[in-house]
Design brief:
alpha/beta, six-stranded mixed beta sheet, 20 helices, globular
């Protein structure tokens, strides 16, 4: 019988103990003694969040295809178990074998959002692995980071031995082969292995680089300390989406996951070029999976999981060229078995609404638009590519189709934003509400319409045209939200309008982490050592703790948020070649100041640099 690492007494005392027992449907079982390398994949957040992440499922499937590798999983223990593990000196363990992570060869941590940074340290600490790479010995696991946050890895660089730049399906085999070869040598040395690993495409080894600073605090030089270590680390890209690994037997969690459904990744990348969107830049070029491959995946995944919902994963599903064929197949072959279809990231047009009417309960659901800005001027600045006619036309089609609930997503604090741009948000919402009453006869209305506006506060991200932009203090963001709220109350249809906004202090911290340098790592370490983790959860986030950490470490928060960057400034992430050139991003930054729209990749190649990958949209 399989033995659990935690006692029954502990499992009975914590919330949702099923988070920690493993053995879920489709989890992979191997004999650890029969493999050459043991890898533990970590999502540094609670189980329900991590189990919703497709990237980990893909890598778990890919790595376990190798007979000489066993990939297991671990997630951040909830604070109730964290406390017990610290008190009783219990090491963190993997779900599959229930064995301590400190005994593994490698620990891979996916970095999906900046507010998980203290949870990285929580996982290392509970695993009883030294927090800093400089303190680790030959017997400690190699700590690897990957995901979108590694496009500026510097605020967390001292905690990682290797940071993987790009899509994980490409270079892990070479890394595993190197490790197995080196580890079998009698004179294995951790530093020698890392130096050799740095020469594998896409692998960044922070300890092999040195940073110097100018008097004003900006970076002067960022250079490798050895001649054989590359000056530039090149992002890795999957060329053929049809032949890359994909989990057709994904793990089914015991605890209901945040996104409890089957997932079909229909394409990677985006053609749109929104100037605020990091994903739209770092996942270029746009690459599709074929309709025939996706049909087979859909049938296999539903058969192996028993899920009653399937979601199409993409940055912009409407741009998938075979969407009508795929959706019709899912409706005809899957919906008849009681399976629902989730269609995120759709443009609201006639086709999308027709499909949504077939797969949604119109009376209960809402349609979602993401104009991102209220005024046409701001939408031109951010290169959104939506006109007010597009937005109102989509809303009108939805109202005619029977919907009376609309969600609108906006950002506040965008570059060059004026008070008129802020007021335009509720004014646009009011126009949409008025359109409902004009379009739908009284006797045909399903109650009054409900227009919900949500605003997040803009965070400049690396490898976007807005990476040069400034941010603001918390009070300024809240002032801008108040302008939107006050303007909403003045609208004729204000009773049909709702408004909600994001936490401003979280935004400030996220912005510092997004564009910070290695000096920020000291702050993250100090905050964790003084009890701060699970920052992505409102009940655990404490901004005063972070302010104290910055003060204690002598790091100026305003340096990272309050200034617009000089066009020639050296960024902490400039050593990464992500495909999109800095010259292209500079050009787009200047075009944003001129309020000029750039066409999408299907209408015109704009010379961003990603043609060098020789795949996807760039081949058309």
């Amino acid at each position: 019988m399989r033995k659990l690492f935690l006692s029954d007494e502990i499992l009975m005392s914590v919330e949702k103990s099923a988070r920690y027992i493993g053995n879920e449907v489709n989890s992979i079982k191997k004999d650890p003694k029969e493999v050459d390398l043991r890898f533990c994949m970590c999502f540094p957040d609670v189980y329900e969040i991590g189990m919703s992440h497709l990237g980990i499922q893909i890598l778990y499937e890919m790595m376990n295809r190798r007979e000489d590798v066993y990939c297991e999983r671990v997630y951040s223990p909830w604070p109730d178990l964290h406390k017990i593990m610290k008190e009783k000196n219990i090491p963190l363990f993997a779900l599959e074998t229930q064995e301590p992570i400190k005994n593994f060869d490698m620990l891979g941590i996916t970095l999906q959002y900046e507010m998980c940074y203290t949870n990285i340290l929580q996982v290392l600490d509970l695993s009883q692995i030294p927090l800093l790479t400089k303190d680790r010995s030959n017997d400690d696991p190699i700590i690897i980071g990957g995901g979108p946050c590694v496009y500026n890895p510097e605020p967390i660089a001292p905690f990682f031995d290797i940071l993987y730049i790009g899509e994980g399906e490409t270079s892990y085999d070479a890394l595993f082969d190197l490790y197995i070869s080196e580890r079998n040598k009698a004179d294995y040395n951790r530093q020698d292995f890392l130096r050799k690993a740095s020469q594998i495409p896409g692998l960044y080894v922070p300890s092999l680089y040195e940073v110097t600073y100018k008097e004003d605090g900006t970076i002067d030089t960022f250079l490798p300390i050895y001649e054989d270590v590359p000056k530039t680390v090149k992002r890795q890209v999957v060329v053929d989406m049809n032949t890359s690994a994909y989990p057709t037997k994904p793990i089914v969690p015991f605890v209901q996951a945040t996104q409890d459904r089957a997932v079909l990744e229909i394409q990677r990348g985006c053609i749109r070029g929104c100037r605020f969107c990091q994903a739209g830049m770092i996942y270029r070029p746009n690459r599709e999976r074929s309709y025939e491959v996706l049909k087979d995946y859909a049938k296999e995944i539903l058969a192996s999981t028993g899920h009653d919902e399937i979601s199409l994963s993409s940055l912009s599903s409407s741009d998938y060229t075979q969407l009508p064929e795929l959706v019709n197949f899912l409706i005809d072959d899957c919906c008849k078995d009681g399976v629902n279809i989730s269609l995120p990231s759709l443009r609201i047009d006639a086709f999308s609404l027709d499909v949504m009417s077939k797969v949604q309960d119109i009376k209960k659901s809402s349609v979602t638009f993401a104009p991102e800005a209220g005024s046409q001027r701001m939408r031109n600045v951010i290169n959104k590519g939506l006109t007010v006619e597009d937005i109102l036309g989509g809303a009108q089609k939805a109202f005619i189709g029977g919907w009376n609930k609309v969600k609108l997503y906006f950002m506040l604090g965008l570059p060059s934003e004026t008070e008129e741009d802020m007021k335009a948000i509720p004014e646009l919402a009011n126009e949409i509400a008025a359109l409902y009453y004009e379009t739908v006869p009284k006797e045909q209305r399903n109650g009054k319409c409900q227009i919900t506006m949500s605003t997040s506060f803009f965070v400049p991200k690396p490898f976007t045209p807005f990476q040069w932009a400034r941010m603001y203090e918390k009070d300024e963001y809240l002032h801008r939200a108040k302008i939107v709220n006050d303007t909403m109350k003045e609208q004729l249809n204000h009773k049909s309008l709702r408004y909600q906004w994001h936490h401003a202090d979280v935004t400030v911290l996220e912005g510092i982490f997004a564009r910070g340098d290695r000096k920020v790592a000291d702050v993250i370490l100090y905050a964790y050592e003084h009890g701060q983790y699970f920052d992505a959860w409102g009940e655990f986030f404490d901004m005063q703790n972070w302010i104290d950490a910055f003060d204690a470490c002598g790091v100026d928060m305003d340096f990272y948020i309050m200034r617009e960057r000089d066009i020639d400034e050296v960024f902490p992430w400039d050593f990464i070649d992500c495909g999109v050139t800095k010259k292209f991003l500079q050009r787009e930054w200047l075009r944003s100041k001129e309020e000029v729209v750039t066409k999408n990749c299907k209408d015109q190649c704009n010379g961003c640099g990603c043609a060098e990958f020789d795949c996807g949209i760039c081949l058309r």
